Amino acid sequence: MPCQLMVGFLAYAKSFEINVDKDELEDAQWHSREDIKKALMFAEYKKAQRTAATKVYQMCKGVEKGQSLSADFNVESGELAPMFVPGPFAIAHHLISSWVHQVSTVVDVHSTRPSGSLSNL
């Protein structure tokens, strides 16, 4: 059985410019803390997460290409969440959730960072 270690990091960006490697990501966008908080509290969020988890499970089981997945995003309210946030099975969910629930503060990283703790990217 293969083993995997997944790690995640929070970092500060030096600008709002996003350069996307199209071989790795289709799209990347900036979102405000408030927008992410709304997406996490969206009424259909848990249902969408269960549906996504079912689809991932089916794909891992090997659903044939062209065959439909049994769980479709059937949102009863007719309203879709403003964005998709990965479910609690993903490290991205925990990074996003912990960032959203932080108190928004401005930090001067040059005066407070311990030696070697932040990249100069």
UniProtKB/TrEMBL annotation:
Cofactor(s) the protein requires to work: Mg(2+)
CC per GO annotation: cytosol; peroxisome
GO biological process: NAD+ catabolic process; NADP+ catabolic process
Origin: domain of life: Eukaryota
Record keywords, A-Z: Hydrolase
Protein name: Uncharacterized protein MANES_14G130500
GO molecular function, one term: NADH pyrophosphatase activity
InterPro entries: NAD-cap_RNA_hydrolase_NudC (IPR050241), NUDIX_hydrolase-like_dom_sf (IPR015797)
